[in-house]
Amino acid sequence: MQKNDLIKVHIEDMTNDGEGIGHSDGFTLFVKDAVIGDTVLARVTRPKKTYAYARVEQVLVSSPDRVAPACPKARSCGGCRMQELAYEKQLAFKEDLVRRNLTRLGGFSDIPMEPIIGMEEPFRYRNKAQYPIGTSKKEPGRLTTGFYAGRTHDIIDIRDCMLAPARNADILRAILAFAEEHHLPAYDEAAGTGLLRHVLIREGFTSGEVLICLVINGRKLPKAGQLVEKLLALSPFPDGAEIKSICLNVNEKRTNVILGNEVLPLFGPPFIFDTLGGFSFRISPLSFYQVNPVQTVKLYGTAVEFAGLTGNETVFDLYCGIGTISHFLAPHAKDVYGVEIVPEAILDAKENAARNGLKSTHFFTAAAEDVAERGYFDEHTPLVRPDVIVVDPPRKGCEASLLHTIRALAPDRVVYVSCDSATLARDLKILCAEGEGARYELARVRPCDMFPHTGHVETVVLLTRNT
Ligand code: SAH
Question: How many alpha carbons fall within 13 Å on the CB side of residue 201?
Answer without folding.
Answer: 27
